[in-house]
Write a structure and sequence with these properties.
6-stranded antiparallel β-sheet; mainly beta; about 250 residues; about 40% strand; single chain
């Protein structure tokens, strides 16, 4: 097939960049760690406390481009107005700035069949960053250009402008790694293409998410191997020799 004039399809014979897995951005990048409640603003109505299944409500950022946060309501008033919230598990979102103001979107529940959104009431108090770990995407949806130190110098304000929802939709892949005991990890959405791998130590197995979104395991991978595959993340890796950290000896090749 000819690739003349189709830059996206050009064959990538050589890697343009390489980095150890441990040095990639973590799953949580400027995610919400805590909230303040703004006195005198609309706390909404018809919200319910989270149960064992941890009901999560969607949010809309009214300030900057941070997105994706899901909140659990942990205290309500007599009319279901929000009194306390906290981030849901896997719901920290990304690219937030301290001071962002969120609308919490009401949804019908077994307790309330009607209600109103909470607007101008929930403010981001602190943001969090995590190191790269198994299952974190190689190529996040957003550009994580600033280091944690640079964000700190800007008083935890990113001023991120979110990409239009229609941008490159056909290249987005949704996936989850299978965690320990068969439990799935947090879900992710990432753009294609993925990255190839260089393996600097003998591995009994390397479990990855392929560019297709499918989870696959490669066994008996010898040291010095270049894996000609395109992957979105490494879900797990088991070294043949104890004491080796796969995150330090496996490189993502871009």
């Amino acid at each position: 097939m000819s690739v003349i004039g189709t830059t996206h399809k050009q064959p990538r014979v050589f890697a343009h960049d390489a980095t150890e897995l441990i040095n990639l951005p973590g799953c949580i990048y400027a995610g919400i760690e805590g909230f303040d409640l703004i006195t005198g603003q609309n706390a909404g109505t018809g919200f319910e406390l989270h149960d064992e299944a941890e009901k999560c409500y969607r949010t809309i950022n009214e300030t900057t481009g941070g997105f994706g946060a899901l909140v659990s309501v942990t205290a309500v008033g007599s009319n279901g107005e929000i009194e306390e919230v906290e981030p849901c598990s896997c719901g920290e979102g990304t690219m937030y700035s301290e001071g962002d103001i969120l609308t919490v979107v009401w949804e019908a529940s077994d307790t309330y069949s009607s209600g109103t959104d909470s607007t101008g009431f929930v403010q981001v108090d602190s943001i969090a960053f995590s190191p790269w770990d198994y299952g974190c995407p190689f190529s996040p949806m957003e550009n994580r250009i600033l280091s944690v130190e640079e964000v700190d110098k800007q008083n935890n304000v990113l001023n991120y402008k979110q990409t239009l929802p229609s941008f490159k939709q056909k290249d987005i892949v949704s996936w989850k790694c299978t965690g320990e005991e068969g439990k799935e990890t947090c879900g992710h959405e990432t753009f294609n293409p993925g990255a190839a791998l260089y393996v600097g130590a003998n591995m009994d197995s390397i479990r990855v998410i392929m560019e297709s979104g499918r989870e696959t395991t490669f066994f008996n991978v010898p040291a010095g191997s270049f894996l000609p595959i395109s992957v979105l993340t490494v879900c797990n890796a088991t070294p043949t020799t104890e004491g080796i950290d796969p995150k330090e000896v496996i490189l993502a090749l871009f």
